Amino acid sequence: MDLYFSCSLTGGRLDQPAYAAMVAHLQALGHRVLTEHLASETVTASDGGLSPEAVFDRDTAWLRACSAVIAEVSTPSHGVGFEIAYALERGKPVLCLARDGVRVSKMVTGIRQSGFAFRSYADVHEALRHMEAFLASPDGPR
């Protein structure tokens, strides 16, 4: 299945090791992660040469093409919020993950739309279990 992984870039990269583990796990399960580059330590260098318009066009095309979105939302990000809303408006299932104890916007935690799930996790292994459950659930990817 084609998945869109969303995470903070400009808001901070504190969770980059978790991003990398999540993307690697999804790939090990046989999924294609359209945004696998976002988990890289050098993502800002790889996307740095692209214009804002090119990034928008590429990423919205991937959002339209994906089967589901998995977003790590521990670090606030305008882009991640936009991607979540864009996907939901197109009927894409969305899973948002956040580390235990972080404050997440009520605009995210308050979503009650079908196909949306928010889960917190104590460690990356719990996050991986949440992803597996979401991908296997009837309300998750179709």
- Strand portion: 15-25%
Distance between the termini: 10 Å
Q: Average pLDDT, to the nearest integer?
A: 92
Look at the structure and give the CATH class. Alpha Beta
In total, the number of domains comes to 1
User: Main sheet?
Assistant: 5 strands, parallel
Look at the helices and sheets and give the structural class: alpha/beta
> Over all CA atoms, what is the radius of gyration?
14 Å
Shape: globular
Low-confidence stretches: none
Number of helices: 6
CATH architecture: 3-Layer(aba) Sandwich
Strands in their spatial order, largest beta sheet: 2-1-3-4-5
Question: Quick one: how many beta strands?
Answer: 5
Any idea of the CATH topology? Rossmann fold
Instruction: Please trace the helix and strand order, writing H or E for each element.
Output: EHEHHEHEHEH
- Tell me roughly what share of residues is in helical segments: 40-55%
Care to describe what's here?
- It is a single chain.
- By secondary structure, the protein is of the alpha/beta class.
- It has one domain (2-136): Rossmann fold (3-Layer(aba) Sandwich), CATH 3.40.50.450.
- The chain is built from 6 helices and 5 strands; from the N terminus they run βαβααβαβαβα.
- The protein has a 5-stranded parallel sheet, with helices on both faces.
- The radius of gyration is 14 Å and the shape is globular.
